[in-house]
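step 4 of 6: structure.
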Amino acid sequence: MKRGGGITMRVGRNRRPALKPRGMRWIAALFLLPALAAFLLFKYYPLFQAVLMSFFDYNLMNPPGRFVGFGNYRLLFRSTIFWTAVWNTFAFAGLYLVLTFWIPIVQALLLNEIRRGSLLFRFLYLVPAAVPSVAVYVLWKWIYHPDYGLLNDWLGSIGLGPYGWLSDPGMAKLAIVMPGMLGGGISLLIYYSALQGIPHEIVEAAKIDGAGPWQRLRKVIFPGLRFIIGIQFVVFVANVFLTFDPIYVMTGGGPVDSTRVLSLLVYDSAFREYRFGLAGAISLMMFAIIAVITFVQLKLSKSAAQ
Amino acid sequence: MTGKRRRIREKGSVSLKGTAYALTIVFIVISLVPMAWMISSSLKDSKSIYAFPPRWLPKTPQTVTVTLNFSGAAPAEREFYEKEAAKAIWYAWKKHQNEPIGEMRVIGIRDGRAILEASTPSYLFTVGRPLVVPSQVFTDAVMNTKFPIIKQRGFTKFVWFWEDETEAGGKEFGGAEPGGTERSEAQSGTPALLVRDFLRQADFMQAEVVAVEQRDNWRRLFDNYLALWAVTDSDGEGLGMVRYLLNSIYVTLASVAAQFVVGGLAGYALSRLISPKWAVRWTLFFVATIMIPEIAILVPLYLTMEQLGLVNTLWGIILPHTAWGIVIFLFKGFFDQLPGELLQAARIDGASELGIYRKIVIPMSLPIFTVVGVMTFIAVWNEFMWPLVVARKESAWTLTVALNDFQNRQTLGTNVLMSSLTVATVPMLLVFLFCQRLVERGAAWTGVKG
């Protein structure tokens, strides 16, 4: 259908107004202003401050306090607790990856085979996600209870345990990760909707060509999921490196520092010991680690795509 | 041959479907176990919560009714009778505080007629216990000092059946006959029997303990939830559940609203009001902040809030939520897809940009607003680290911060703690129940866009 004036035609192509009155720039600035202020104040300024702080023996009363150059970093690299925390952070990331990342994917693949009652099943998968995450960790602390806990009772009935889930340094990491092993929730929905996005005809065509379920999964469904898994993987890794809530609620870093991670170290050195400069240095180290990992991941996924 | 092949495939697909159903149900049941345990624990009394091996079904609470006979005593003030009843209730309950007692009732009789009924439900016992019976000292002197507290806080309800102490009156007493036997006496170790033995041996009672009965009272199953609202510490400070709930709701809704305003306007400007070259740069400026982990700027952000005087305020929690790169990205992405002709036509008609945005863009963009709203709701409702840092005073705590604090309080029983977790679950459950489709759409959008 042909529409009048060239102006509208151009707008249709570019999806942008071609005519730009002078006043528009002011309006644009006005529209952007709140966001600009918010991002400067709550993202960029704190980031700048974090860098600055890490070079000072930061003094709350008389900021920024004494300049120490790389003193905070030197202190960090020499302290054993920092390296313990680095090791723990990577150990947690590995554990989360191996034990939890794939579960919602499997659940979504199974759910995708289901037609009847799918809405109900999706709702039931959402129900446990309604418990606020902090409440989940408080609840699991009760399930892990050494004397009255449900888990030790169950394991005891098949002849295992009793385990001191949160008091045994060898078990605590696993105990922190385990609540995440139930899957469900939002991540399941993300994979499910991606699966629903794979055109039905392609799957049917593969079926007619004689591809079994396993082959269909490998040749048709998985390639369709690869993009979303890639994105979710990057987000997931960045998140597990920042794990704070379950550790703070369940163990507080103990027993014997077996769950002390970098994010907890930041919190403790800032808000328990009031060594803000040190906290700034640790958080920048975390920033650097995550940035490097994300960068490597993006590079890898790009080269894999080509 | 083809027929054979089709049949094999048919069989395979049926078994595949069956496996999918079976495994999905297994996964769902497993993921629901912790939640079921939370609800079960929240309904238990203070004894069975610490039973090992753990039981799934809570015991039905018992109403224990004590009949006191005042016939022998000299006529006295009402307070005398009420104190006797209060002693029977509070001392006996304190002595056996872990029994599954849901309610204690005392019926006072005189000359064969009921004159007084006193009762305390278990949630008020939980609330009053540290105030009224902090120790196991059961004497008249203690009751004399504690009785005003009971009256003033209404821990025990007294109902009188006579108008005046002097005149004979009261209600026809049809309960246990003096000296008669009761149903429950057959079983030993029941709450009623324990209470009877304790009261009969006690030297603080002037009235005669005639009978003690017990009866199932399932309504008292939910007293842990009532205790949650009523419980106070020694200063009379409540648990503050209402305040934390309201704080959380306020923070969540205000965050959503702030994101609508800030993110929506910026997204529209990026999409429609500035040249493509600059739009790319500005979008990068906003969206690149996704890379900054929260923990990296946690400390300086706190210091910024301190400079702004927003520490320990709800707006201190809310305002940083206006700077989420993903929100601006989602808005811009959606506005990019709107038909430009319509906006241009309105512009030619002389509508102002704000008018266009309000009257045309927003009504067409309801899907993105609901998606951003629901996803923000979930994220902010669950948020823990930032409120923990910036709300250092109880007045600004959100529910998540409060729940973490509850678990460290020695005075709060695990059963009451579990009921607080259950209450914290309800708002989100309602969102999922009524907005499941929106949540799913939100998951689809944010999932693809990271």
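step 5 of 6: annotate
 - Confidence is low (pLDDT under 50) at residues 1-10, 177-186 of chain B.
 - Residues 62-230 of chain B form one domain.
step 6 of 6: archive
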